[in-house]
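Supplementary Text 2. Reproducibility record for the structural model of the 756-residue chain.

All settings were left at their defaults, and a single model was retained for analysis rather than an ensemble. We include the record here because the model underlies the residue-level annotations in Supplementary Table 4.
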Amino acid sequence: MKKIKDTLLYIGILGVFFALMYWIIQSGKILEAGRFVVEPQLQSSYFSQFIQSIANNLAHPVGLVLAQIVTIIIVSRVFGFIFRKIHQPTVIGEIIAGIALGPSLLGILFPEFSSSLFPENSLGNLSLLSQVGLILFMFMVGMELDMKVIQSKVKDAVVVSNAGILIPFTIGIGLAYFIYENFAPKGVPFLSFGLFLGMAMSITAFPVLARIVQERGMHRTRVGNLVITCAAADDITAWCMLAAIIAIAKAGSFVSSLYVILLSIGYVLIMIKVVRPFLKRVGDLHATRENLSKQVVAIFFLTLLISSYTTEIIGIHALFGAFLAGTIMPENTKFRNIFIQKIEDVALVLLLPLFFVFTGLRTQIGLLNDIYLWKITGLIILVAITGKFVGSALAAKFVGQNWRDSLTIGALMNTRGLMELIVLNIGYDLGILSPEVFSMMVIMALVTTLMTGPALDLIERIFRTKPDMIQEKISHLSKFKIILSFGNPEMGRSLLRLANNLVKKQKENTSVTALHLCPNNVLHHYNMDEYENESFEPVIQESELLSQKITTLFKASDDIDHDITEITNKGDFDLLLIGIGQSIFEGSLLGKILGYTTRIVNPDRLIHRVAGKEKIFGNSPFDDRTQNILSASKVPVGIFVDKNTGDYDQVIVPFYTEKDGFLVDYIQRLIKNSGAQVTATDPAGTIRKHIEIKEAIRAIEQEAPNHITVNREKDIDEEFIRQFQLMVISTDGWKKLVDSQCPWLNQTPSILILKA
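Retained model, structure tokens:
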């Protein structure tokens, strides 16, 4: 009754105030007399007016730029996801997304829509926003450079790095000599054109290279460390050279640019000698997230912006200032992690795709409408590969590397990616590169980056004389081999305890390998060792407590499901154990039973639904990731639901189907290695009906009569299930159990769900 009264009172108050406003408006119309107010004449219907209003709002600069950003982010994420799935760098997908949204594809297929979404007068807004994204990105690139590593290995890397710039730079200038007359814009001196073409041939995409090294597990190898150092040194050298080239291009001659170069040197010295010590002191005092207040963050952002503004005013481009600001940030790893996390998503997800599309809008592949132009494009690609790939490989061989490592270094140094696009856009903005040459060079950047993965695979195949890293670490391991894969370190600890219960009295004939895969997009090469140590620390501590020797494997991955099964299958393991956290059963029937909820839309699930892949498992109680692992694994898989029920002394093993006979092997292992008390239940009459299962259990009863009991009761209640610490069940049995919606399911102990 009270709710009805409150509702009526609320409606009454609204009515009174609306009536009062209506009276004031009507009274106000009287005041219009003598003010020449003209009533609008309705020339069309109200609906037409509404449509016209919507059209005006869409064409408004704010509405248009928001529509552009939404479209760009969606398309770039889709293309990035597709290319990640085919084991190519995400950045390649984003670059191609930009080209697809430009005149090369969207402009040809849907010219009216393209001109409406990206009108010429709106490109200035996109350009400014993309420049902000690039400034933040270059700031991050500078922070990701580990100057200590470069300094410690500079003698090993200097020859390869310098040769990786000098050779392609020289060949690039030689190429400029042959194409200058036909392709250089009018009024551009050969010096500027040649220097920019040489610079474009010399660049290496350090961020993309670092991601590839992480993903392929090369970060622990000698060649991986060497190539990262070479690329970092290459980046520093290249950006310093680019600053000088921009100064020369703007001044028109080397002599005229000396003032700019001298001013730039002074600026660099001030940043290193004055600003860097100040920032180090601030960083040391605020190295934790709690101490990193908004005022402190403002200091570092002001450093970035002032540095970028200064280099823009000097005449060597704002991006160099952003890069230098990143390199002088405090070297404290935790501080850099915190600061990168603050800007990474905004820079990489929101703003950087705008740059790719802006580049795509400038890339007019349709201009290359002649076989001669495509021959020139092929020549540019050939020169780029020869200079960077061959030059770096020969330099690596010269300093004593074997051919396999030399070619690997060459293939990685030939990766150009986003850094190349930045250089090309600078040249285009300065009027040094014509639209045709710009389009040719963009194609070259795509080809040289796309070829990195296949080139590395080919090199590995040609020189496959030794097992790969994973095989090398596990090839010596003996008879019964368990691999446990974990995301959360505490889950790794739980999985190790479970594995130990299966093997602890047979350690001389068994082995345990702990695998941790990290999403590639949340890991940076400079903090990889720290992240790996933190991830494995609880597992290693537990292994010491249990006196259980383990082998650890760590890898950055773009496709965790695929890599888990690939490593497991290649390693010829006997059992894969995976843990289940609160997200692994998101949105599934099991998730509802265990009380977990869906918070994020899973893109893989959407793809599987479109492709019909979900039908493989029918109404499965498992989430997509677990389904993928179960379907791709060629070895038995154990899915562990940890409920912290302590030691696994009391174990229940329900038999639901005739295929559950393999569970007897695990019963034997638990009894033999941990002395567990096992209760085998027969709710479906499976043991009674199938002689093989019955005889196998009877053999255990004869060997260890005090450790196994067969319960033939069909009904299991909550009181009965509470006495156990572990349930071992097959995937088919678990599906039957979930489908039956047993009332005691939420009372189950820790669960080990096994697939033979």
